[in-house]
From TrEMBL:
Highest rank taxon of the organism: Bacteria
Record-stated family: Belongs to the UPF0758 family.
Record-annotated MPN domain positions: 25-110
Record's keyword terms, sorted: Hydrolase, Metal-binding, Metalloprotease, Protease, Zinc
Protein name: MPN domain-containing protein
Listed InterPro entries: MPN, RadC_JAB, UPF0758, UPF0758_CS
Amino acid sequence: MEKNKELEVVRVKMITDKKLYSEYPLTSPEAVCKFVSKELADYDREVMCVLNCSTKGQVLNMNVVSMGTIDACLVTGRELFKSAILSNAASVILVHNHPSGDYHPSREDR
């Protein structure tokens, strides 16, 4: 074992001047669909996103967590929550698209 190994220190800095992605709170599934439909409409493959929200339900930012194939998207917990923690989000909303246009939840969605 080497004696001169040092522990690498990682620092996280919060930004105090928050800017909102949207000032309007997302209070229903319909509001979420309306909000993200324009953002996700042009993707030709499945995309998983996280909306990081304030305590009032306002969107702080949107993070694309994973880009998959035409009918699948692989996601892990680490990617899901990393941006939420770094954004100091009070809540998150997870969304993904269906490029096929069929909006019924698949077995994998459930």
